C-alpha cells in the first residue's frame, strides 16, 4: 500500500508539499497540485484520516444519534443533516439507537473513539448525565439536557394550539390527542399541554392516550386507535402527535368506515413528505425540518470554532390544511 513518501517521490516534491496539498494549506502552484494529485491517483494512495485528524485536532466528523432511521420524520431530518454537514466539509456517523439506552451508550463510546467534532442528539433513551460528562460540542433536538447544552425545537405549544383550535372551529364536539410518552418530559410535550389548555378553555370534552416509551410500531399504534374508538365511539376529532400516527388513524378509520372529514377530522404534526400523498391528504402542523437540520449543523460548527451559541432555539410552525379537516 502506497504511503505519503511514495507520493512525494512519484510527483518529485517533498513530503511536506504533499501534506500541504492534502490539507489544502499554504500556497501551492497549480502545476505542483496537479502533479501531486496525479501521483495520488496513479498510486491509489489513501490518506490516513485518523493521523490527519490527530495532527489537525479535528476529524471533520459529526455524530448523529437518532431513535429510528426508518421513521419518516427522522429519515427526512437525517437526510438534511447529512446534506448540510457535507456542504460544510463534514461527514456524518449515523447511530440508530432504537431508544435503547445500552445501545445509545455504546454509540457514544464509539463516537468518542472516532474523535468526532460534535454530536447531534435526537434520541431520548440515555440519562442526561451521560451527555453532561462529554467534553464535546453537542446540540439536542427536541430535548432539554441542561443550560449548557443548546437545543432546537419547533414551537410545539403553538402547534398544539393551532391543531386543537382548528378541530374545534370545524365543529368537533369531543376530541382526542394521541401523544408521545409524556414521562420523557421533552419540549414536544407542549403539544399535549396546548391541546389540554385549548380544550378546557372551550369546554370541549377530550381524551388523551400515550404511545409506549420505546415504540415506533405502527401495529401498536393501530391497536391503540382501535381501543380509542371502542372506548370513545363519539370522538369526532383527533390531534395526532406525528403524521405517522395520523396515517394509522386514517387506515383504521377506513376499516371501521368512519368517513373523513365528515364524521372524523384529523390533524397530524410534522408535515413529512408523505402527508400530502395520504388519502385523504393530511392536515398537519408543519415543522421546519430542513431548517432544524441546518441550524443543528451551524450550532455544532459554531461551537467547534469557539463561538457562542443560543441555548434555546425555537422555530416557528405552520398549519397546513388539507382534506382531513
TrEMBL record:
Residues 2-56 form the HTH lacI-type domain. It comes from the Bacteria. GO terms for molecular function: DNA-binding transcription factor activity; transcription cis-regulatory region binding. Keywords: DNA-binding, Repressor, Transcription, Transcription regulation. The keyword Zinc-finger does not apply. InterPro entries: HTH_LacI, LacI/GalR-like_sensor, Lambda_DNA-bd_dom_sf, Peripla_BP_I. This is HTH-type transcriptional regulator DegA. It comes from Clostridium vincentii.
